[in-house]
Amino acid sequence: MIGKVLVFLKNQLNAYLKVKSGWRPEEATEEMVEFLDGASIDPLTFKPEVVSVLLINIEEENTLRSADPFTAIDRNGVSQKVQPEIRLNLYVLFVARFTKYEAGLDYLSLIIQYFQHNRRFNQHNAPTLDEEIEQLVMELITLPFSEQNEIWNALRSPYLPSVLYKVSMIVFRDEDAMPLPETVEKIIRTSS
């Protein structure tokens, strides 16, 4: 599901940037926003003349998570032991590497503008969003210089113009719930 979220964001930005930047298909065949090439991960290199999308952290939103499994009834009326949902926040870095420095800044400005106008994605306003994903909320994150330095040191790359977004919340549900043993199911029915 994480891959589906990143592909969705990449496709949305590509469509927007092509319109806003006056991109013409005859001028280039490549996308403006791309994932890193798996072959250029170690050492990490950012492709020139594009905005690279990079997942830098996955965080569990545990304040909304129940600690214990609970019982749910499926469509067939069978009681099941269900693990609590896991809600994740993704931290996505958009990095602009352009020969013309100001071109990279212009693309980052357009990305910020897009997410300012389209802060929340759901099935109603984004029909291409995968059905498994209820909604995504985009939040611009401003890191202190020390934390930015740590990120770029961890990436082993010199600083490039970039913007960081927190994408909330990706919800994982227990799709492989196990039916409860008959004795437990009888206890549950008699107590209700």
Describe the structure.
The chain is an alpha+beta fold. The chain has one domain. The protein contains four helices and nine strands, in the order αβββββαββαββα. Strands 1-2-5-8-7-6 form a six-stranded mixed β-sheet, with helices on one face. The protein is globular and about 60 Å long.
Question: What is the topological layout?
Answer:
Layout: H1 2-20, E1 33-35, E2 50-60, E3 70-73, E4 79-82, E5 86-97, H2 101-117, E6 120-122, E7 135-141, H3 145-155, E8 162-172, E9 178-179, H4 182-191
A few lines on this structure:
With 192 residues, the chain is α+β, with helices and mostly antiparallel strands.
List keywords for this structure.
9 strands; 4 helices; alpha+beta; 192 residues; 6-stranded mixed sheet; 3-stranded antiparallel sheet; globular
